[in-house]
Amino acid sequence: MATVDEVRTAQELAPDRRLLDVVDLKTHFRTPRGLVKAVDGVSLRLDRGRTLGLVGESGSGKSVLSRSIMQLFPKRNVYTSGKVIFQGQDITDMSDKDLREFWGTQMSMVFQDPMTSLNPVMTIGKQLTEGLRKHLNFTRDEAEATALELMRSVHIPEPQQRLEEYRHQLSGGMRQRVTIAMALACGPKLLFADEATTALDVTVQAQILNLLQDLQQERDMGMILVTHDLGVVAGRSHEIAVMYAGKIVEKAPTSVLFSNMKMPYTEALLRSIPKLENPSHTTLRAIGGRPPDLIAPPNGCNFSPRCPYAQDRCHEEEPPLVSADEPGHNYACWYPVGTKANQEALELNLSKGLPQARVVVESGPVDV
Ligand SMILES: Nc1ncnc2c1ncn2[C@@H]1O[C@H](COP(=O)(O)OP(=O)(O)OP(=O)(O)O)[C@@H](O)[C@H]1O
Ligand SMILES: [Mg+2]
Predict the structure, then answer these.
(1) Which terminus of the chain faces fewer neighbouring Cβ atoms within 10 Å, N or C?
(2) 246-260: pLDDT as tens digits
(3) Res 156: pLDDT
(4) For residue 249, which of 193, 195, 196, 306 has the smallest C-alpha distance?
(5) Each residue of 271-297: b (16+ CB within 10 Å) or e?
(6) What mean pLDDT do residues 207-217 have?
(7) Banded model confidence at residue 344, pLDDT cuts 50, 70, 90
């Protein structure tokens, strides 16, 4: 008899598991200063039942990418190109009317701040039932029963009573549970969680992340977990994509990324996670230097001005995203971490007294 793992693997490999294919997606904003290339040629895919962790520093384009996949940007003042294929259909040319239906029932997002997604003057119950009645044509009774069920599924105590309450009567954690219930109401197949727990304290954060993970498994959804913190996605994603300046610079199955990262930027991100001996809520150590100006990015590799290993080539020629040895592992670097060339580049930069090269030596190997 097949083991659970074998069944699972077969399921995951089935062609109809394919949920999302993003192909060379670009989102550029026209601004008075110039064109902001917030998302600049991103490709990725996601199957049902899988979680993709999308990580990168503030401003790297994670939220713009998530919103672009959802088609949330009005086309005015925004230049977009590329394809977003959701269950075989390219949704980039969908009409606004179809998109509104689509957001309710196919793709949904849990935002960082529940205060912005919950209406202050409407009861929680009303907000939950509204979507169900509109998108799924439920009767009042059906919608109310489903709302109660949803409140239970996100583990809200005394759910019946909570349905009659307003936003301000709930704690931060409860509010975020309600927004998750709202996002799940019409049974989306893909859920984005964009820094959904950043505003919460550490214990509640873990509870909400566990809840999201359980719901994702139960409902066989695809999930894109957006965060600046590699630690958050470490045990919760099947795959991780690292973003820098609007591009994916490394992508790999989670265990491969942690054991065999190739991008110096990924290494720097990992270095910025507080060590075990520090409490996890201490501020992340910032990566030296500043993220690039997206209107006038540096020549060559976008990370080169901050990179401990950068050589002349890095400042001149942009490295393409190439395949590493393990399947599903891609990176964009001329001097990938763990290679002899990388070590020699570091030594050369140390001999020149490059400060970011010294950081690598002083902080020692990264903890995995
Ligand atoms: N409407 C807009 N017009 C112009 N520039 C924008 C617009 N929206 C976002 N940007 C720019 O696009 C870049 C990417 O922003 P984005 O919000 O996606 O970053 P992020 O990775 O989600 O950061 P954070 O971790 O802080 O949420 C930033 O430089 C931002 O200033
Ligand atoms: Mg963001």
Answers:
(1) N
(2) 999 999 999 999 999
(3) 92
(4) 306
(5) bbbeeeeeeeeeeeeebeeebbebeeb
(6) 91
(7) very high
Say yes or no to pLDDT of 116 above 90. Answer: no
Q: Which residue has the higher pLDDT, 10 or 71?
A: 71
- Residue 64 Cβ contacting ligand 1 at under 6 Å: yes
251-291 pLDDT per residue, tens: 999 999 999 999 999 999 988 776 555 444 444 456 788 88
- Ligand 1 pocket residue status of 68, Cβ below 6 Å: no
Amino acid at 266: T
Which residue, judged by its Cα, is nearest atom 14 of ligand 1? 61
Residue 298 has pLDDT above 80, yes or no: yes
DSSP 154-201: TT-SSHHHHHTS-GGGS-HHHHHHHHHHHHHTT--SEEEEESTTTTS-
Give me the residues paired with residue 190 across strands.
107, 222
Report the alpha-carbon distance of residue 123 to residue 166 in Å, rounded.
5
Q: To test ligand 1's pocket by mutation, which of 31, 63, 65, 66 has the most ligand atoms within 8 angstroms of CB? A: 63
Best probe residue, ligand 1, of 28, 30, 35, 36 (max atoms within 8 Å of C-beta)? 36
In short, whether 49's Cβ falls inside 6 Å of ligand 1 is: no
Q: Tell me the domain boundaries of the chain.
A: 19-102+225-368
To the nearest 5 percent, what fractions of the chain are helix, strand and coil?
Answer: 40, 20, 40
Q: Which two tokens stand for residue 93?
A: 């040319």
Please report the atom of ligand 1 found closest to the CA of residue 228.
Answer: 25
pLDDT at 137 over 70: yes
Q: What are phi and psi of 237, to 5 degrees?
A: -120, 145
The CATH class of 19-102+225-368 is alpha beta
pTM of this structure = 0.91
